[in-house]
Amino acid sequence: MADFYSISVPVLIRYLRQLDGLLVRVADFAAARGVSEADLLALSLSTDMFDLRRQVLIAAGFSIRALRPIAPALAAVPNAEAATIVELHARIAERIDALSRLEPGDINGKEAVRVIETAGEAEFETDALTFLTQYALPNFFFHFMTAFAILRQASVLIGKADFDGFHAYPPGFRFV
After folding, report:
1. Is the confidence at residue 56, as pLDDT, over 90?
2. CATH topology for 9-164?
3. Gene3D superfamilies of this UniProt entry (predicted)?
4. Are strands 122-127 and 114-119 parallel, antiparallel or unpaired?
5. In the chain, where are the structural domains located?
6. Residue of 49, 80, 82, 68 whose CA lies nearest to 150
7. What is the CB neighbour count within 10 angstroms for residue 26?
8. pTM for this one?
9. Collapsing DSSP states into helix, strand and coil, what is residue 77?
10. Is the pLDDT assigned to residue 1 strictly greater than 80?
11. Which of 29, 52, 80, 156 is placed for a possible disulfide with 91 were both Cys, Cβ 3.0 to 4.6 Å?
């Protein structure tokens, strides 16, 4: 069975890098189309949802929030704010750096530690493993995927390879 470290830190770092790669694609798309980066960052899937900028920040935030209850060193990572693509890159890099400093011994064996957290206006209590696997990781991926969907909706040429880094398709490939 995988240990707590293996199912969290490498996964979060991998997908933070993928999220960072999406921002490179946003900057390239803006430059190629003569669109303002600020306008792209302000896009959302609907009027009652956060914009792209906020989706990226929330995903980045969940990468730290996922382990902060059991990794005291992560308490030093401040909540992220950013207004530009350059600043978003910096916030992601800070989180990758903080997670990269964790060692397996820092969190393995802490799966049963009690975590008290808020989700919107609800407060809940659970163990650290359940918090990670049933709350923090799903929320990280929800906001990452929402950012991805906003970019697809804006016609930024991204696909599964940009999401997971595993897939590869020939140029111009389409499923439909």
Report:
1. yes
2. Four Helix Bundle (Hemerythrin (Met), subunit A) (1.20.120)
3. dinb family like domain
4. antiparallel
5. 9-164
6. 49
7. 25
8. 0.95
9. coil
10. no
11. 80
